[in-house]
């Protein structure tokens, strides 16, 4: 598998080859082929040293640590070193002598570079060296900013993932606490229904323990869990409570984040007194294309109070929605004197 680093190295090699060919092309006019190769190699080698010393050593170890004086002194030394290298190479023989032969001569046969020509070459090399340093510094600045931004994004994602795990971990203890209270109540009043409740709870916990660690599950599995939860609530009552459920319009083959819907349903049962003849819980779920619509409505018990000792509440699920479906959901809550209604529209991934 080709990594990003491998691609970057390959691109760098291609760029240096292209840089070499450009120098070779322009040097081939006054010099023969052999001399052009040597001179182009000299320029590229010196500029490569400049580029990578500045990029890998001076910039990260000095400038990035706010050692500005040391950085610019080191840069000056590097430029002097470049001057020394170019001065040595300027002693190379002149390659082209049109006055004598009218054609390219062999590298070892040419006379020495004339002073004016050497000065022009030297100035061009220094200017190009400064340009290389500028490009090196600009590229390093861009890469550093990209890396810092990526680190910030990674840190933010790690924090969000940690928060998500914490929020999700609150779901199971909250439900389990309510379930155990219900089983205890059932055991003390109608013991014959206790085994059914324990079996239903077992099925639900299997789903929670073994399937909800995935990022997404089939909507059919989430609906199955919701049905089990509703059945678990029904068992508590001697007479059938007014629970209205319609999942017929839902496509079970869609994918959804696990346990994202159940808090709304749990909230409805928690705050509705289904033992009252006038109380009800209504749950409707449907899909259209990639959109999911859910309505949860329940009467409000006059004795219902906010759970101050536990539970994730609606704030938890709002934060989960914001993390899992950013800009992909609409949540409206209508809380009047008698009925509490939630409408959720979700764009499934």
Give a verbal description of the structure.
InterPro entries: Bact_2-comp_sensor_kinase, HATPase_C_sf, Sig_transdc_His_kin_internal. One of its GO terms (molecular function) is phosphorelay sensor kinase activity. Residues 163-239 form the Signal transduction histidine kinase internal region domain. By secondary structure, this protein is α+β, with helices and mostly antiparallel strands. The chain has 2 domains: 4-153, no CATH class; 190-347, Heat Shock Protein 90 (2-Layer Sandwich). It is 59% helix and 13% strand. It contains 8 helices and 7 strands, in the order H-H-H-H-H-E-H-E-E-H-E-E-H-E-E. The strands form 2 sheets. It has a 5-stranded mixed β-sheet, covered by helices on one side. Strands 1-3 form a two-stranded antiparallel ribbon. Strand 4 (281-288) and strand 5 (291-299) form a beta hairpin. Helix 1 packs across helix 2, helix 2 runs antiparallel to helix 3 and helix 4 packs antiparallel against helix 5 (194-210). The longest helix is centred in the middle third of the chain and has 75 residues, at 115-189. Mean pLDDT is 79; it is low at 93-111 and 306-311.
User: What distance lies between the first and last C-alpha atoms, to the nearest angstrom?
Assistant: 28 Å
The domain tally reads 2
Q: Residue ranges: pLDDT <50 for 5 or more in a row? A: 93-111, 306-311
Estimate the mean pLDDT confidence. Answer: 79
How is the largest sheet built, in terms of strand order? 2-4-5-7-6
CATH class bucket of the largest domain: Alpha Beta
CATH-wise, what's the superfamily of the largest domain?
Answer: Histidine kinase-like ATPase, C-terminal domain
The coarse silhouette is rod-shaped
The name of the CATH architecture of the largest domain is 2-Layer Sandwich
Rg, alpha carbons: 37 Å
- How many E-type strands? 7
Structural class: alpha+beta
Largest sheet: 5 strands, mixed
Helix proportion range = 55-70%
Portion in strands: 5-15%
Q: What is the overall number of helices?
A: 8
Order of SSEs: HHHHHEHEEHEEHEE
Keywords: Coiled coil, Kinase, Membrane, Transferase, Transmembrane, Transmembrane helix
Domain Signal transduction histidine kinase internal region: 163-239
InterPro entries: Bact_2-comp_sensor_kinase (IPR050640), HATPase_C_sf (IPR036890), Sig_transdc_His_kin_internal (IPR010559)
GO molecular function, one term: phosphorelay sensor kinase activity
């Amino acid at each position: 598998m080709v990594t990003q680093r491998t691609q970057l190295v390959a691109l760098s090699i291609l760029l240096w080859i292209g840089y070499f060919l450009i120098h070779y092309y322009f040097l081939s006019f006054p010099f023969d082929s052999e001399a052009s190769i040597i001179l182009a190699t000299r320029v590229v080698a010196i500029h490569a040293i400049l580029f990578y010393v500045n990029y890998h050593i001076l910039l990260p170890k000095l400038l990035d640590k706010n050692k500005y004086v040391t950085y610019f002194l080191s840069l000056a030394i590097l430029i002097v070193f470049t001057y020394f290298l170019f001065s040595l190479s300027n002693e190379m023989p002149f390659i082209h002598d049109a006055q004598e032969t009218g054609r390219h001569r062999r590298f070892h046969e040419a006379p020495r570079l004339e002073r004016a020509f050497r000065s022009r070459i030297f100035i061009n090399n220094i200017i190009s060296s400064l340009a290389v340093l500028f490009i090196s510094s600009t590229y390093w600045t861009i890469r550093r900013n990209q890396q810092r931004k990526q680190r910030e994004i990674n840190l933010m994602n790690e924090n969000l993932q940690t928060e998500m795990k914490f929020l999700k971990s609150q779901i199971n203890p909250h439900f389990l606490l309510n379930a155990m209270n219900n089983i205890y109540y059932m055991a003390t009043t109608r013991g014959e229904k206790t085994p059914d409740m324990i079996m239903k709870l077992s099925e639900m916990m299997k789903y929670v323990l073994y399937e909800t660690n995935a990022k997404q599950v089939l909507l059919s599995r989430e609906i199955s869990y919701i049905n089990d939860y509703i059945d678990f609530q029904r068992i508590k009552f001697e007479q059938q409570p007014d629970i209205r459920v319609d999942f017929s319009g839902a496509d079970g083959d869609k994918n959804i984040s696990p346990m994202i819907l159940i808090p709304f349903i749990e909230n409805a049962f928690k705050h509705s007194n289904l033992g009252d003849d006038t109380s009800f819980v209504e749950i409707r779920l449907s899909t259209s294309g990639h959109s999911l619509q859910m309505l949860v409505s329940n009467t409000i018990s006059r004795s219902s109070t906010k759970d101050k000792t536990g539970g994730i509440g609606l704030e938890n699920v709002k934060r989960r929605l914001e993390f899992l479906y950013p800009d992909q959901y609409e949540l409206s809550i209508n809380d009047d004197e008698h009925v509490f209604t939630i409408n959720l529209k979700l764009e499934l991934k």
